[in-house]
Specification:
Helix 3 links the parallel strand 4 and strand 5. Helix content is about 40%, strand content about 15%. The protein contains 13 helices and twelve strands. It has two domains: about 170 residues, Rossmann fold; about 130 residues, 3-Layer(aba) Sandwich (Rossmann fold), CATH 3.40.50. The strands form three sheets. It has a five-stranded parallel sheet with strand order 5-4-3-6-7, sandwiched between helices. A five-stranded mixed sheet has the order 10-9-8-11-12, sandwiched between helices.
């Protein structure tokens, strides 16, 4: 079986190389973007091409974030995603994917086993693991037999194999920097579930608004961090992210994934320090600070208000946003 797959893949790759120029594909620029936490939906709406279908009829032509027009002949039944960030979008839509790569660290199976956002979906779908998102495995994608392949524009290494992937199935690129609302809509459009995507958006926005009502009344400061692999304090969350939940950053906290020293964090002296990271990594980082009197004298430390949120909340998708809202309400008193 493996031999047959390898031969078929080789034929597809050869065909892709020969036909790439004639097909006139537009290649997205390669990059490795950071996820953003934009909250407002209206400001990120993009004008639609007049040929782009917005109803549930098939076939349909959609415009993706890479500027490509993609025609889908029928509603996709087997979806392959090349980054596990999009697992939650398709689970929320009720259309779990057939295959998934992992994230920048780990595999799709690790995400399914450990992501707090995905725990409610454990065992509800059989998903083929495509390996690391950093090294797209063409043979594995071919073996998954997808009807559509989904990833984000700028996915590192995508340029080199974009045409070959298109020989396997239509490739749809999403805008990783867009709002979670618009990314939900884009995923809904791929599977013909625009009505479901709008319902998800409404329910998630209501959950966030309820959290805002509670949290905005709390006279507490909150510093959200990652740990840069357990090496330093790294700001986590944009101004709009803080505003959406109604939480207040401490004086001296700046956004844009800034890195802070222990002394800088101590000067901020937040009421709560929340790590949104791999929990074991964050706990190891905290352990390394415990010998310092600077750390031990901070208000959050003395009041036992150092909290750990699962790294999956950094997808900033609809499941992550709802879960974050609920966890913040139960944490900040």
């Amino acid at each position: 079986m493996k031999k047959h797959i390898s031969i078929l893949l080789a034929l597809l790759l050869s065909a892709g190389l020969l036909s790439a120029c004639s097909k006139g594909y537009q290649q997205p620029e390669a990059s490795n973007p950071e996820p953003t936490e934009n909250i407002g939906a209206e400001e990120s709406q993009k004008p639609q091409d007049p040929d782009v279908s917005k109803d549930s009829s098939w076939p349909r032509t959609i415009m993706d974030a890479g500027g490509h027009k993609i025609t889908l002949a029928s509603q996709p039944k087997r979806i392959a995603i090349l980054h596990s960030n999009y697992l939650e979008y398709f689970f929320a839509l009720g259309t779990p994917v057939a295959a998934s790569a992992g994230a920048s660290v780990g595999t799709a199976q690790q995400a399914l086993d450990t992501y707090e956002t995905l725990i409610p979906y454990g065992g509800t779908a059989k998903i083929m693991d495509l390996g690391s998102a950093r090294e797209i495995n063409l043979e594995a994608v071919l073996e998954a037999k997808p009807d559509v392949i989904v990833t984000f524009a700028g996915h590192s290494g995508l340029d080199e194999i974009y045409n070959q992937l298109n020989q396997i199935a239509p490739v749809v690129l999403l805008d990783y920097s867009d709002t979670w609302q618009n990314q939900t809509r884009a995923c809904g459009e791929i599977v013909g579930k625009e009505d479901v995507s709008e319902k998800i958006i409404k329910e998630t926005e209501d959950t966030i608004a309820s959290a805002h009502e509670v949290l905005s009344k709390q006279d507490k400061t909150v510093a959200l961090f990652r740990t840069n692999g357990g090496k330093a304090f790294v700001a986590r969350g944009s101004r709009s992210y803080y505003d959406a939940f109604g939480i207040t950053p401490p004086k001296g906290y700046t956004f844009g994934y800034e890195t802070f020293s222990l002394e800088a964090v101590a000067e901020m002296d937040p009421d709560y320090i929340i790590f949104m990271d791999y929990v074991d990594t964050a706990k190891g980082f905290v352990k390394s600070q415990e010998a310092s009197s600077v750390w031990l004298n901070m208000s959050a430390v003395k009041n036992d208000n150092v909290v750990y949120f699962d790294d999956s909340l950094n997808t900033f998708g609809p499941l992550a946003m709802s879960l974050t809202a609920n966890k913040l309400v139960h944490t900040i008193k």
